[in-house]
Task: structure prediction
Amino acid sequence: MASYDVIILGGGPGGYLAAERLGAKGKKVLLIEKDRLGGTCLNVGCIPTKTLLNSAKLYLHAKEGERYGVKAEGISFDWTAMQAWKGEVVEKLHNALALTEKKLGVTVVAASGRLVGSGKVEAGGEVHEAPAIILATGSSPVMPPIPGARDNPKVVDSTGLLEIASVPERLCVIGGGVIGVEFASLFSALGSKVEVVEMLDEIVPFMDKDQAPVLRRAMKAVSFRLGCKVERIEGSTVVYRTKDGTEAKAEVDLVLMAVGRKPNIELWGAKESGLDFSPKGVVVDERMRTNLPGVYAVGDLTGKSLLAHSAYRMAEVAVADILSGGASGPGGGGTNVMRYTAVPWAVYGIPEAAGVGMTEQEAAQKGIAVKKSALPLRVSGRFCAENGFAAQGSVKVIADEASGVILGVHVVGSYASEMIWGGAALIEQELRVADVKELIFPHPSVCEAIRDAVWELE
Amino acid sequence: MPKSLLVDPSVVRKSGSLEIASIPLNRYVPNFKTELARFGAPGLVAMWRDMVCIREFETMLNSFKTMGSWDGIEYNHKGPAHLSIGQEAASVGQCASLEPDDYIFGSHRSHGEILAKCLSASRVLDEKKLLAIMEGFLGGETLKAIERLKSAGVRDLAETFTLFGTLAEIFARKAGFNRGLGGSMHAFFTPFGSMPNNAIVGGSADIATGSALYKRINRKPGIVVANIGDASMGCGPVWEAMSLAAMDQYRSLWPKEIGGAPPILFNFFNNFYGMGGQTDGETMGYKVLARVGAGVNPENMHAERVDGYNPLAVAEVVARKKKILLEGRGPVLLDTITYRISGHSPSDASSYRSKEEIELWQGADPIESYGAYLVENKAATRPELEAVRASVKEKLLAVVKVATDDTACPRVDSSFIESVMFSNGKVEKFGEAKPEFLQDLSENPRVKALAGKARCAFDAEGKPVAKNKLYQYRDALFEAMLHRFSVDPTMAAWGEENRDWGGAFAVYRGLTEALPYHRLFNTTISEGAIVGSGVGYALSGGRAVVELMYCDFMGRAGDEIFNQASKWQSMSAGLLKMPLVLRVSVGNKYGAQHSQDWTALVAHVPGLKAMFPATPYDAKGMLNLALRGTDPVVFFESQLLYDVGERFEKGGVPEGYYEIPEGEPAVRKTGSDLTIATLGATLYRALDAAKVLEDKYGVSTEVVDLRFIAPLKYDVLLESVRKTGKLVLASDACERGSYLHTVASNVTQLAFDDLDAPVAVVGSRNWITPAAEMEELYFPQKEWIVDTVHERILPLKGHSSTTVQTALDLARRTRSGV
Ligand SMILES: Cc1cc2nc3c(=O)[nH]c(=O)nc-3n(C[C@H](O)[C@H](O)[C@H](O)COP(=O)(O)OP(=O)(O)OC[C@H]3O[C@@H](n4cnc5c(N)ncnc54)[C@H](O)[C@@H]3O)c2cc1C
Ligand SMILES: Cc1ncc(C[n+]2csc(CCOP(=O)(O)OP(=O)(O)O)c2C)c(N)n1
Ligand SMILES: [Mg+2]
Result:
């Protein structure tokens, strides 16, 4: 039996960042990862998808280059080479991560861990003890009980799709969420005929209702079947029912099931240890504490916000609580708590979309009176120069009617993912319209559109 | 239990058969000569008049309830009206054989009985006395309301007074018999012997038994009647009351001069129905209600069935039974058959009985047939009777006019209701007699033993005194009991194993030697009747101390505690006092049904005082307080405490008399960073926790013992919280719904700005109490308190919780109902 200051279960963004932060403070940390350090994000999530999307974007740009005076001939892509590059990126980042942990003195154990109770984790047949434990076991893709979906080699989840040997001629994506839209962009850019079947009336359900159609319309080559419910899958044929009740089919070569992810709560003693959880995730408070004393949960496991950077922030909140002996939150006079109001999100498709804060619809639902402004990205000179004058793109800002505090920033168009942190900063700092007007944005840049939209708010 | 009674195997194992004597059914044979001789013609007509009064009164109410008007007067009576149309002969006949000193307790359907009793009493009471009663009642307010109505003398005025007082009460008027706080189902008028009526079916059975005990023990004149319905024979408390009333000991063990069994008549007004359930043939199995008497004692409870449609038959049987009761040979059971022509209540559509049946009984209408009987035997002429009816109607109209007039007849305000929730009296003794004892108290073995005990838990050097030399919590209770026994001649105590055994936890050890049987006795295992009889005893004018061995057994006495003891002072508008102390012991080690602290249940019910001493000094001082008061007190004790010595009062437990100031918590230990407030035995674990918090974590901890539940003064607690800003509340009650949550919420309201952290409540788990070996999983432990402080109030540097006390787990437990 070995004892540590902190034991971390799961080596994804939540787990590894917590380990780094604690290691940096000289804490004795045990990081238990059953698979590969880096978790979903590095191995089968954020990084590999973005790597492939970048390749696809390069391919598109090359094809479209003539308009901008750059002519290339014999343009083609090599899926195997793209995959190899993806593998190289993942591998190198993984190694760098392992090295960082090592440098910080974090003990990494390759084993499946099990929570025994407050202060105790079992891994590799050994019980380890620590006054604090961070649970970060992440999430897994949901395979819904649609007839014909399970054990069908033609139906893959995101992890499966990342590993395919060749680009399918026809792809049906079930689920128009972030993952679905990114893969739809990727494969349609590579020439697949892509159909997205979405049960709701719009793609990316949490997007602003004015913004989502902009994104959808920009994905010209993709066919969207909205308001359609998949009833069964026969081989590689997806049978769905349209809104008006008629049955329709998507006859394709491969089906991506992208209807969501579920927290990994099984197999590591959650129930036996008395931990409080539901199918939506482990219950935590604003300091990421669970009901068990000294036991924290972060990342996808909490079901609160399934994003790598949320996992990072949650990890930091938990770490702060541990380092302060429970004094980081309001009880101890601190303010270091997890807030979800300023968590940005991004869709790295073609084009990109990103947002942070409230949508106009959320505000209405909460009964908050807002002022809003929306502008096409054409207001940005750089956007026009780089995308042409017909390109789709839009920015929308909403602010509290009475106080002028910025409540939401939403962007569709290139660089959206890179600029959205700025929106997050405005919201986290509770800046008002008048404050933002005093900020200086670089010119020329696409993000200037945010500034223009703010100026439109009176 | 008494050694004087031998259980002889050769007797009880003998073969044979039990002979049960026959039970008379409707044996009355009318004999006008005898009847005339007994009542005289005016008396016989007066009975008819009373029956008409009841009929007209109930018909009037029925009209208001069903049509919103009567005789041209419009009025909306919102409350209940369980009418007794058809049952008039039964109540009038009964009261014809009762005197003002005889008490009747009743049910939801007792308008008729109130009227019959008051009218009969006002006919026999001395006129001067009668007037004085009316003038003195509620400061003359009831009388004043009808002073402008014409009357032919004091007795006639008394009739108007009765009709008005009852009706005004039903209409919730301030001039009503109970200032409108009793209403239709509870109204009563004690000066004429009409005692509380009860909206709880069968509720009067045990209360009336207690009232009869009061009469017997204190040698008061008269008998007590419990008027209850046939359907109440299915109620546990009714059987309990009959069992308690039939105990052998009254005649075998009690001093002969006491006079035998309590004079209680269980009169079942058998109208053959509950609400819609038919007792004979459907909901009961007795066929003939009177049969039940055979199950209670060898005398069959002197049971008889009597024809309640003939007032003279009822009067005759009641007179005979009264004699039996006064001779101490009770209890008596009467199966007084009758029929309610009206529905159970105005909403009753009579879907459960046939028209034919109602018509058959209407055909036998008691007023018509008794009237005809009077005419036939020339006690009155038809026109005379019609004149009586007309005069009743005329009077009723005048009374109704006043009682429906909102200006002439206002209602009480909220401050009045508040003012009668408790009587807050201090009464040394409820009687003037010399308190009875069997011995000089200086000879009492317990008194002698206590003289040699150390009244403080620590000796002069501060070392703990050995248990066998120690004056303990149980001794403190004993001293308080003995003191009041020696001051108040009416004080009596009863419960299970109170005598000889000395109370299950030896609190009463020594009292058996000191007190005659009628002041301390063992009862049937009838928790409902134990408490209910205490209620009846107290409201009749005596001081009672009843004991439920375990707090958990309060469930068995739920109605008596929550609906009876708690309500009668206020439902009587303060006319009744309730000097009743109910001792309950919070247990442990005996599992789920013997280990619960139910202070919260008691706290929730208005009208009860409740206290829970945790030290010998408080045990004596608080029981002294309770035993001089006039309010019902639920006195919680803990089996974890009976053998503790006094650890807080420097001089130990005083030998003399003293009281703890009501409602005031005690600071057991001062501190400046954190307050722990406890209720009950948890105090000692809190002190251990305070020690850990101070020694290990430097948290200066104040410990407050709430000791009172209701009333509770917050000043001491608030002052402490103002200083520390942090509060943990702990008791052995289950966390959910614990009384401490009320305290927490009040402190939050009253001292929000002073609080640095949420108030935490530590209670037992919301489970069954597991076996003694596993009790640490269930009852709050020292560690629970420390961990709660760490998790929810103030992170303790270097502390690792060993138990789960996080806020999130509280949420989880709440969500899953555990
Ligand atoms: C295709 C795809 C694309 C995505 N793109 C983005 C994106 O662009 N941006 C973004 O913010 N998010 C993205 N995400 C989401 C992101 O990957 C997750 O939010 C993030 O990985 C959550 O981190 P985590 O630490 O909570 O869990 P995970 O990354 O899932 O890590 C959990 C780790 O715990 C390990 N583990 C589980 N149980 C045990 C056990 N008992 N013992 C030991 N180890 C255990 C697992 O093996 C895993 O390595 C994407 C996800 C997918 C699937
Ligand atoms: C403990 C209790 N249970 C049920 C009721 C509802 N209830 C009121 S009267 C009544 C029927 C009582 O029948 P009985 O005792 O025969 O009296 P009756 O109404 O016939 O006069 C019932 C069930 C009640 N008031 N109290
Ligand atoms: Mg009945």
Observations:
- The pocket of magnesium ion (ligand 3) is lined by residues B 229-231, 271, 273-274 (CB under 6 Å).
